[in-house]
TrEMBL record:
It comes from the Eukaryota. Residues 89-136 form the DUF4246 domain. This is DUF4246 domain-containing protein. It comes from Adineta steineri.
Amino acid sequence: TTQHKQRPFLPDLRDEAYNDLSEHEKLRDTYQWVPSEFIIDKDGKVDIRTPIIHLPVLPEYRQIYGDIARIFHSMLPMFEKLKLINLKSNVSQKLQVIIKAQSYNLKAGMKYSGRWHTEGQTENIVAVGVYYLDIDEQLEGGHTVKDRTNSVVPQVP
């Protein structure tokens, strides 16, 4: 469509713009992550300003929204080390955040090898924060994270 022919992309994608035949454009139309707006106020408090996709804004989910905000707040020092935010700022900072929840139940002897998914490839994602709710003490491995090119991604302590 003409809408696709006119839509510019950020310079990190090849040739700075795509036509409607672009591989990235096809991926964007098929697989797209929808961000929620998170605000970090001048006191460092995290407020989720827009709904999280597939998590209704209903009274019974209010605690989950609060838990997500608290978990995200615990990641702020890491994002500051990456120079993505400034916790000493006197103004609120707005971030677009993707929330993805997964559950893996591994039994003794089972192996899991993660893989990169198709969604998010054209979203200009600048950082990832991972939170594990529960990790069994007997679980081995899991200390190496790799990017799409199979090179090791540095971990911020």
